[in-house]
């Protein structure tokens, strides 16, 4: 990468990246640079997401009807199941979902809420055993405005993290490097999952 001394844009041999230093923006500088990621508009507009909030076409409603390999399912519980994220942030990115098509955490039954929590804890233990991450990001986004990709069906993210796992590749090349195939990760996690859960 090169930086033109007279410019706030950072560039490469292919031209400038859509980046601005804070000092070039109106107002009081805040010390932050800005990466403009226009490709994220597809996510914001909802391209490739279910057309409505019904369970028709919901990937979390259809996955349990498939075999584990095709549905990327790691574990099936009584009220909830665990599957690989088809668009992972990192290798081993799991989702814990209720079978029931429900959008809000407060709408879960007590049984669903307990199993979702227990499966999240088991997912962390199994991932530690299989992949030795340095930490985890856990969370669920409630509503599209909060960042939920599929807001109509609640799902808990379990994202393993390693030192140095984040880089600029997604921004520069619109590519995420995931070092393990989804099915390979699914098979390793499923094999290590305790049978008594």
**How would you name the CATH homologous superfamily of the largest domain?**
HIT-like
CATH class of the largest domain, named: Alpha Beta
User: Tell me about the biggest sheet?
Assistant: 5 strands, antiparallel
Give the strand tally.
Answer: 10
Strand content: 15-25%
Strand and helix map with partners:
Blueprint: E1 2-3, E2 10-12, E3 15-16, E4 19-20, E5 34-35, H1 41-45, H2 59-62, H3 68-71, E6 73-76, E7 80-84, E8 94-98, H4 110-131, E9 135-139, E10 156-161, H5 169-172, H6 182-192
Antiparallel strand pairs: 1-2, 2-3, 4-5, 6-7, 7-8, 8-10, 9-10
Walk me through this protein's architecture:
- By secondary structure, this protein is an alpha+beta fold.
- It has 2 domains: about 1-35, no CATH class; about 50-190, HIT-like (HIT family, subunit A, 2-Layer Sandwich).
- About 25% of the residues lie in helices and about 20% in strands.
- It is built from 6 helices and 10 strands.
- The strands form 3 sheets. Strands 6-7-8-10-9 form a 5-stranded antiparallel sheet.
- Strand 2 (about 10) and strand 3 (about 15) form a beta hairpin.
- The radius of gyration is 20 Å and the shape is globular.
For the structure shown, list the relevant keywords.
197 residues; 25% helix; three-stranded antiparallel beta sheet; HIT family, subunit A; 6 helices; globular
Can you give me a brief rundown of this structure?
This protein has 197 residues and is an alpha+beta fold. The chain has helices at residues 41-45, 59-62, 68-71, 110-131, 169-172, 182-192, and strands spanning 2-3, 10-12, 15-16, 19-20, 34-35, 73-76, 80-84, 94-98, 135-139, 156-161. The chain has 2 domains: 2-36, no CATH class; 52-192, HIT-like (HIT family, subunit A).
